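Sample 1 of the test manifest.
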Amino acid sequence: MKKRLLSFIAFSLILLSGCSGDGKVTDSDLALLKTTNPPAVLIDKNTRGNMDLVENIEHDVEKMKELYDVAVVKSNGDTLVAYKVKHLQRFHMKKIEKKMTKMLEEKYPDENFIVSSDYKIFIEAVELQEKMKDPDFTDNKAKKKLDKIIKLKNEMT
Amino acid sequence: MSKKTKTPEQQQYEKLEQKHELKRPVLKNCIRAFWVGGLICVVGQAITYFYIYFFNFTEQTAGNPTVATMIFISMLLTGFGVYDRLGQFGGAGSAVPVTGFGNAVISAAIEHRTEGFVLGVGGNMFKLAGSVILFGVFSAFVVALIKTLLIIWGVI
């Protein structure tokens, strides 16, 4: 019995360690485990005003005490704000979302905000930010990816 | 029970019974249930993260496949005879999470296998799980009704 258990544990260990992949670990792989603090992403004309706007949005959101990690992606249509809520504050998730949407809409009335506290949305936003570093990754592709994220966010159970 | 006065023999027997009765280790059982139930939930959380990471599921939508996977795993474990041992050790900790549902289905199916596939397995498979489904659906209906009414009245 003991031998069988031991061999089962050994087998599962071997099986699990096979899953480590190509060894390249990016921020988006660890986004659930640690604070990534990704820089704001702009998928639009790279003007001074636009850049300042995204950074201001990120700063404003980061000021909220209940959060600890914020990712902002802005395209010419929508602005995605993904954030992680501190664990004990997760009880007030809905309230925080309401407060944030109100604050953002009052401060930036021209923008169309999509606000989400979902981990998946956060991971995808970090991934998008990583992909933007690649010069082959065109704005068009980025826009498509952002649309995909927004579609994912609006999906219901 | 009726409050009839007991005969002297009954009272004597009661005393004898109390002398021999084993004390139920309530605290120990609770701690065991806490650990086993918690462990099952940790596995469930890991599966949720697995679906979030490797598939297109959000936190909102990952719940359904997670439940299905957990039930499937517990069904397999029941068939292999592992879940019985877990249930013996953990008690309510293994019955209350959704895995207990899978266990209830398969253990009933195994038990009545000798009575044939239709009247045995088919007829008895949902003997215990049937009430879970019935009252689950009914309570979901009631909760949805309350929520709909609250939305209509503008409370939430």
